[in-house]
Amino acid sequence: MEGTFCPGDYLVIAPLASALEALRPGDVAVFKRGGEHGPSHLIAHRVVAVQPDGALLQGDSSNPYAPERVQADRIIGLVTEFERNGQRYRVARGKRGRLHAWRIRVRLTARGYLSHRFRGVYDAIKRWGIVRRIWRPRVVSLRVRGQNEIILKYLAGHRVVARWYPDRRCWECRKPYDLVLSPPGQNA
Fold it and tell me: Measuring CA to CA, which residue among 36, 28, 35 is closest to residue 77?
């Protein structure tokens, strides 16, 4: 449900007495996946269609041609609200929910197309260092001790924009910060 929910959001779930009566396309349902011989997980997906024995569910950023069939007894409830940073928001349901999911898919498809189309231009700008000369974001480095290693995190505001794992010599950086940041020991 990338695009609708973010990691760390709290979901408010309304339990369903009779799962199929209350479900309608566009709602966000929570269901149990797995659990017979392995661990079970709770998953939130949008309802695509309601069927006599269950529903077709799919994540907002998932492949639109591969909805998941879920039996009625595995559906736990409907997500009515979510809480992010202390603020509560209503979840779009019904037609508004379907429109919301469509907009997310269009945005992700466009982003993928544009990033593929302009990758060469982006790489050239990165190599030439043009952006580094004009944009200097306020980035703070923070040294964090993990379970088995030390990690250097780079923050812009409250957002982690890059990570450096010195033991593995591994550098992870979000776009567009990769245009101005580089691993320690390289030209910055």
Answer: 28
Instruction: Please enumerate in sequence order all residues whose Cβ is within 8 A of that of 69, keeping only pairs 6 or more positions apart, or say none.
Output: 51, 54, 55, 56
- Give the span between the Cα atoms of 129 and 127, in whole angstroms: 6
Q: Which residue has the tokens 């580089």?
A: 182
Residue 59 has pLDDT above 80, yes or no: yes
Q: Give the other-Cβ count within 10 Å of 185's Cβ.
A: 9
Could you tell me where in the chain the CATH 2.30.30 domains are found? Answer: 10-116
Confidence of residue 8 (pLDDT cuts 50, 70, 90): confident
The torsion region of residue 21 among left (phi > 0), alpha (psi -120 to 50) and beta comes to alpha
Give the model's confidence band at 163: pLDDT under 50 very low, under 70 low, under 90 confident, else very high: very high
Question: What is the average pLDDT value for the chain, to the nearest integer?
Answer: 84
The class of domain 10-116 in CATH terms is mainly beta
- Beta carbons within 10 angstroms of residue 75's beta carbon: 21
79: closest CA among 149, 184, 5, 138? 5
d(Cα 37, Cα 187) in Å, to the nearest integer?
A: 52
